[in-house]
Amino acid sequence: MKYLINTTYLSDSQKRMENVELSSSCPCCGVSLFPDLLYAVCVDHDDTEEDIVYTFNHCQNCDECFISKHPFDEENGDGFIYASSSPVKSCEQNFSEAITSLSPDFVSIYTQAALAESLGLDQICGIGYRKAIEFLVKDYTIHKSPNSKDAILKATLGACISNYIKDDRLTTLARAATWLGNDETHYVRQHPDYTLKELKAFADAFITFIDADLAYEAALKLVTP
Ligand SMILES: [Zn+2]
User: Fold this and answer.
1) Distance 63 CA to ligand 1 centre (A)
2) Which domain of life is it from (predicted)?
3) 70 contacts 21 by C-beta, under 8 angstroms
């Protein structure tokens, strides 16, 4: 979502109101927030599509300041989209103890993908998210069907999702996240209308469902005599 902000143009020092998508998290502490906007400047060019807005932001959580880069939104032409922030000091992801214990490799890979995204490495972070999903699916399905461990390890990710995840909602989310993840790794995109945003949204929903299932298992253990 873009917000109308007062932006100083570099070429003539004039201020204009511009629609800018702000950073949704702080690169210093990793906390999701709506930053305090301190200053915005547009480095403008003859071709407006080459214009880039830079914002100077303050984080209420860690009290540090950071810079964000917002190139022109070529797709919609209605302002500037968020691209990256710096300095990147933290990409800690808040996964539950249950998820961390189920799949430490998933947590490590997902965190590295998030770091790549924070650094603006948009060509490779999707591949990292795709790999993270694979590790989580494999570790989760082995956890649910320990007797099938060897078959799960050998199965493709698609087969693993189809054959070993029982809940339709989980299957759908895992499949959608995997399809979009595959688009990040291949030359031709099969789903060009979807972006990294949807990939992360599906992956995050999948993680939330697994978290809930692990909490359910723990509760069941407590109440079952
Ligand atoms: Zn912060």
Assistant:
1) 6
2) Bacteria
3) yes
Tell me, in angstroms, the distance from the centre of ligand 1 to residue 204's CA.
Answer: 21
The answer on pLDDT for 136 being more than 90 is: yes
- Please give the distance, rounded to the nearest whole angstrom, from the Cα atom of residue 162 to the centre of ligand 1: 40
Burial of 137 (0-12, 13-18, 19+ CB in 10 A): buried
Residue whose entry in the numeric block shows the structure tokens 């189809």:
162
- Burial environment of residue 62 by CB neighbours within 10 A (0 to 12, 13 to 18, 19 or more): middle
Q: Are strands 2-9 and 36-43 parallel, antiparallel or unpaired?
A: parallel
The pairing of strands 52-58 and 36-43 is antiparallel
Query: How many whole angstroms from 113 Cα to the centroid of ligand 1?
Result: 19
Cα of 126 to ligand 1 centre, how many Å? Answer: 24
- Whole-number Å distance, alpha carbon 33 to ligand 1 midpoint, is 8
Query: Given a cut of 80, is residue 32 above it in pLDDT?
Result: no
* Residue 25 burial (CB count, 10 A): 19
Q: How far is the CA of 18 from the centre of ligand 1 (A)?
A: 25
Span 91-128, pLDDT tens digits: 777 899 999 999 999 999 999 898 888 777 888 989 99
Q: Where are the domains of the chain?
A: 2-86, 97-223
Q: How far is the CA of 13 from the centre of ligand 1 (A)?
A: 30
